[in-house]
Amino acid sequence: MSNIHSLADVKTKNIGENTLVWQFCVILRDVKIGRNCNICAQVFIENNVLIGNNVTIKSGAQLFDGLTVEDNVFIGPNVSFTNDMVPRSKKYPESYLKTVLKKGCSIGAGSVIIAGLVIGQYAFVGAGSVVTKNVPANTVWYGNPAVQKGFITNDGEILDMNMKDKKGIKHVSYL
């Protein structure tokens, strides 16, 4: 059973078991949300959005049409996803660009993800980044525009560009 706060405006019926939706969220009718997710206060999720299992979406995030979020993804507070490269008031494209967040990736607070990109499995986008390119699996990106700054293991250990951890130990494989 899902737990939806009484002050949330949730139109979808497609929410998996043990998912929490906190106050002041707006979730539109066609959204699909998996099991065991935590959708914090003041999140907006538009119609054509698919969210997998075990996803955390922190307060103030905005998820617009065309976004797919795979399992075990973390979306930090105030993250925004765009879906139209040339937006105009009252002009709507026939279809929106598709953005995919692959399994286990993390998007830091206040980041903006430009439409039509793929954030790879277990990738890490640092807080405040503006992502304008696809982010490969197991890489660390940050800045404006975001650029690759290192690698990350599936367990979340950050490696530098030479595949070395904080202790200076080189990792042959980071997966």
Summarize the structure.
This protein is mostly beta strands and 175 residues long.
Describe the structure.
The chain has strands spanning about 5, 10, 20, 25, 30-35, 40, 45, 50, 55, 60-65, 65-70, 75, 80, 100, 105, 110-115, 120, 125, 130, 140-145, 145-150, 160. The chain is mainly beta. The mean pLDDT is about 95. The chain has a single domain, classed as 3 Solenoid (UDP N-Acetylglucosamine Acyltransferase, domain 1), CATH 2.160.10.10. It is about 0% helix and about 30% strand. The protein has no helices and 22 strands.
Counted beta strands:
22
Cα distance spanning the termini: 34 Å
Can you write the helix and strand succession as a string?
EEEEEEEEEEEEEEEEEEEEEE
Looking at CATH, the homologous superfamily is Hexapeptide repeat proteins
CATH architecture classification name:
3 Solenoid
Given the helix and strand composition, which structural class is it?
A: mainly beta
Q: Note the main sheet.
A: 10 strands, mixed
CATH domain topology: UDP N-Acetylglucosamine Acyltransferase, domain 1
> How many helices?
0
**Strand portion:** 25-35%
Using the alpha-carbon principal axes, give the shape: globular
Helical proportion?
under 10%
Placed side by side, the strands forming the largest sheet appear as 1-3-6-9-12-15-18-20-21-22
Radius of gyration: 17 Å
Uncertain parts: none
What is the name of the CATH class? Mainly Beta
Average pLDDT, all residues: 96
The tally of structural domains comes to 1
